[in-house]
Every structure is written in C-alpha cells, then in structure tokens.
C-alpha cells in the first residue's frame, strides 16, 4: 500500500462544539479541511494499529465523498479493519451499537444531525470512543489544539470502495467490511423491548401510527423495524427515503419542523393514534398522541416512571440524568423512586461517564433526546419503541398517560425560545451582560417572581472529576420556576441564543392552562433581565419548541 504524506496548513475554527465539528458543506469541502481534522483526530489516538474503526453517517450531501477519504486515511493510520455502513449509512445510535458490539477501537460519525443538508447546508464529523459515546471534552480540546499546528496528513493511495455491496474488500492491509446498517441495531432493540406485545398493538384495528423519518437516516431503520419486524402496515413510515438534502427541510423533529405530523395527529379523520419522528442522524425523537404533543422533558419523565413495563429495565433502575436546561420533571420521578438524579451540561458526551459507571439507567435532553445504557448516544427509535411498549402495556392513550403523570407528579410546564443567527458579538455581549449581573440578581423580584439564586452553570463530572464551566446562565425562581440562557454549540451561522423556560404547576386544575399563558411572565422576565431586544434587536424568537 502506498501512503502519501501531504503537506498542509491549519484551518481556523476546527473546534468541536456540543456534538462534534459542524460547518457549512462549502467549508468542509475545501481541499484539506476534512483531511486536517481527521488527521488531528488520528494524531490523538494511541494504539489503533490493527484495531477496528466504525464509520458511517446520516447520508447527507458530502457523506459519500468524506467516507472514501476517511477510509484511505484510516488505512494510512494503521487501522486493521473498518466497519462501514452500506452506502455510508449509519444512524448515530446504530454507530454506537456497532462500536460496542464489535468492540471497536472507536468510530467516526458523519452528521450535522438536525441541521439542514445539501450543497448549501451543513456537514459534521464526530469521533466516538470505544464505549460507543462521543469523545469527552479533554479529547476534543486536544483535537482542536492539534488542528491548529498540523503540518501534514497521511492518506493511502487507493480507488474508491464500492459501498453498495455488503462484504469485505481491502485497502492495502486494512479490511473494509461493508455492513448492513440496521441488523446489529435491531438485534439490540429486540433484547430490550417486548416485541410480541408491540406487534400485537400495531395489529389492532383501533391503533394506527405514523413515523416521519423526515427524509433522513431513520427511514431504512424504521421501515425494517416497524414495518418489517413489528408488522406495522406498509406506509406507516413516511418520508422514509434518506435524501442528501433531506428534501430541503430541517430534519428536526419539533412542532415547527414536523408540523405535518402534528397536523395529521390533530385531524380525527386521519385515524392516527400515535405519531413519532426522528432527526437527521436518528438520535432525536418526537412523540405525538392524538391531538397532543409530548414535551421531550415530559417524555423522559414518563419513560423513567414506567420502567417496570419494559423488559430490559423492569428489574430496577440505578438513576437518571438530564442536561441542565431540561425540565426537572424527571427529578421528581427519581425522588419518588429513591434513585439519584444527575444534572449535566448540554450534550450527550456528558452522560457517558455516568452510564459507564452504572450510575444512571436513563438520560435525556429537552431537545428531544432520550436514551439508556444500551448505547452511549441518544436514540430516537429506542424512545419510539419504549413508548410503544408502554402503550402496549397500558390500555390508555398518549394523552391519558401524560395527564395521569402530571396528576401524580405535578406538571413542569416548559418551552424553549430560540433566537437564531444573531450577530456573534451581540450574543456574546448579551451573555456577558448577564454574567456581570449575576451577583446582584438573587433576591430581586421581576414580574412578581423572586429570583432565589442565579449562577453560570459549572459541572464537575462525578466520575472523572473533569470540570466544564460557563454551561449556561440559570435564574432559579421561587416555587421551582427556572429561566436558563445559553448559546448553541451546533449552529454554523452567527450565534443562536436559547432561552429555556420552566414553571412547576402542582395543581391539576391548572394543568390545562396553555403553555404560552402559563409561561408568559417568565418570558417577560427573561426578555427584560437579558435585554434581548435592546442588545440583539430581536422582538420575538425564531423558533418556539
Ligand atoms: C443542541 C441541543 C443539545 C443536543 C445537541 C446535539 O445543542 O440543544 O441538547 O445535545 O444539539 O444534538 P446546542 O448546543 O445547539 O444547544 V444532535 O441531535 O445535533 O446530535
Ligand atoms: Co441528532
């Protein structure tokens, strides 16, 4: 095998964010950009010679080009084998499952998740460790540092591999094994859930579901699992063919971008009783009942509260974890179950050490991510099957289950307001302004609500002791309400300000107050404390979820 050593110079901005490095396709496709970043990853590995790498992505534009480059670079880096999904496809949770099952050294996942795709869209790349989870911040910082001084990359000279054909080929001494992207993942899910009961549920004439794959990676997974293995009628999965530009949409399963699904479930004529959707790379989920959207934070809480109904978890759970901005609904479940609840910074990489140490069974984020110890990523279809398993055991609708949950635990009314593509300097100024105000905020009253405490969330990983600072400004209000401000770490244009709003409502008589009404005072408080219009010039959020 001939290996070329190619001289290169650093690119600015190869700093991974919340979930890997995300940039416009135009940035990624500059000569050397991808190669520099991949080499910076490989330069930080020790002992990969002869080992297995897992490789795949969400099928977005540039996925196919990047995979061929990474295969040749993996050969030059001395990997012994690469398991690559057929046609370059692996959903994020499936990549995690494959890494773990095959005891791989690590994996590279090509995805910008919920960000739009296509030639003018976004691309992304993320390194996962042998536990199947995203590399921690120590590793991603080291990769960034390397990218700033890189002078050469190494790549094998070889023809493109035919990724359409299952089976083994090679690049020099490295075996390339093109695998079915679904089978290992399906096998894992089969070991967790009651497939017989779910099959029976899906066969009932009074139960109809729709899964919207949003033209993204879960199409083939959902077809095989829901329509194939579980026998749901053909057509249950819509938008099921992955497209390089996701059909021009945002593959983000929320009420704004999955509006069609929400509308279908709201229309009695559709006959639908259960709806679900997933994002670009298959790690997010949206759960919709008949005329009823389940908020992701509530979904996590319901999942935890119903663990006894699901075979793999029925024996007991060790704890739960949520990202800091996620509502505290799951904490109330943990308190009742007598298990610990952990609060981590945003991003799945912070759950890995807790899961590895057996401290938590379920993890989740307000951004529609839920998962468990079965992999080290959030897992969209896992959440859908979990809900189907609950529905198969409780003869109630989605809405009844959530309302019953609220009656028992109280309702954490929740919403997130996103202000997108703000000028980066203005966004930084807003956050810094809040930081400066922090010492004086506690004790003040706004909109009739007293701020009990205010801080900039700092996290110390209880397992490895690593610290992550400046993870979001928290205003903790009397009665358990919260307002959180943070800047997104996944966008590729300017800055996105996320404002997270939460109010605890114990009284069932108030559970029907519309979210907008219930949170209006908190919105006014957030807007005025942070001076959002004054600093950003924006009078309303772009997306409310
Ligand atoms: C967002 C979400 C976060 C999630 C991350 C990756 O990050 O808020 O909860 O973990 O996306 O999800 P940010 O920094 O933009 O708020 V995905 O589905 O893009 O892998
Ligand atoms: Co995703």
Secondary-structure map with pairings?
Layout: E1 3-7, E2 21-24, H1 25-28, H2 33-42, E3 52-57, H3 63-76, E4 81-89, H4 92-101, E5 106-110, E6 122-128, H5 137-149, E7 152-156, E8 167-171, E9 174-179, H6 183-190, H7 195-203, E10 209-212, H8 218-229, E11 237-238, H9 259-266, E12 274-278, E13 285-289, E14 292-294, H10 296-305, E15 320-323, H11 329-337, E16 341-344, H12 352-356, E17 362-365, E18 369-372, H13 380-393, H14 398-409, E19 411-422, H15 424-441, E20 445-446, E21 449-456, E22 459-460, E23 467-468, E24 473-477, E25 482-487, E26 495-505, H16 515-530, H17 532-536, E27 543-544
Parallel strand pairs: 3-4, 3-5, 4-9, 10-11, 10-12, 15-16, 15-17
Antiparallel strand pairs: 1-7, 2-6, 5-6, 8-9, 12-13, 13-14, 17-18, 19-26, 19-27, 20-21, 21-24, 22-23, 24-25, 25-26
Bound molecules: alpha-D-glucose-1-phosphate-6-vanadate and cobalt (II) ion.
Give your account of this protein's structure:
The termini are far apart. 32% of the residues lie in helices and 25% in strands. α11 links the parallel β15 and β16. With 545 residues, the protein is of the alpha/beta class. 53% of the residues are buried. The chain has 17 helices and 27 strands. The strands form six sheets. A seven-stranded mixed β-sheet has the order 2-6-5-3-4-9-8, with helices on both faces. Strands 20-21-24-25-26-19-27 form a seven-stranded antiparallel β-sheet. The chain has a five-stranded mixed β-sheet with strand order 11-10-12-13-14, sandwiched between helices. The protein has three domains: 178 residues, 3-Layer(aba) Sandwich (Alpha-D-Glucose-1,6-Bisphosphate, Chain A, domain 3), CATH 3.40.120; 225 residues, Alpha-D-Glucose-1,6-Bisphosphate, Chain A, domain 3, CATH 3.40.120; 134 residues, Alpha-D-phosphohexomutase, C-terminal domain (TATA-Binding Protein). α7 crosses α13. The protein is globular. Alpha-D-glucose-1-phosphate-6-vanadate binds next to loops. The site of cobalt (II) ion has 8 residues, from loops.
